[in-house]
């Protein structure tokens, strides 16, 4: 049983949708709500518009975003995913990854892709 973020999932496969996104086919997950319509998106590594479309298709709204780490292939879809969303959406990332996210432009240059605009807020 998985506990956290205000929900309980005992049959997690019934509540998680896996998408392969971006040029590197990064695994992105949508954690479906047990109640209500707020979903959690984990590692939007690309194709933020596609991820948003999947939420819409399922009648869901974006509740939170979890970034397991700040490598560019896990965050590239964040700007498109957040388009039109409230600035109050929580984006959760371990504080140890702050230097990586703050210098995402270096990763982007190395990969030869445009640097995504990643909103950085500290609690």
Record the SSE blueprint.
Elements lengths: L1 E3 L2 E3 L6 E6 L4 E6 L6 E5 L5 H10 L3 E6 L11 H5 L7 E3 L5 H5 L1 H8 L12
Parallel strand pairs: 5-6, 6-7
Antiparallel strand pairs: 1-2, 3-4, 4-5
Descriptive keywords:
123 residues; alpha/beta; Metallo-beta-lactamase, Chain A; 5-stranded mixed beta sheet; 4 helices; 7 strands
Quick recap:
This protein is of the alpha/beta class. The protein has four helices and seven strands, in the order βββββαβαβαα.
Molecular structure report:
This protein is an alpha/beta fold. It has a single domain, classed as Ribonuclease Z/Hydroxyacylglutathione hydrolase-like (Metallo-beta-lactamase, Chain A, 4-Layer Sandwich). The chain contains four helices and seven strands. The strands form two sheets. A five-stranded mixed β-sheet has the order 3-4-5-6-7, covered by helices on one side. Strands 1-2 form a two-stranded antiparallel sheet. A hairpin with a 4-residue loop joins strand 3 (16-21) and strand 4. It is globular. The N and C termini lie far apart (29 Å). The model has no long low-confidence stretch (mean pLDDT 86).
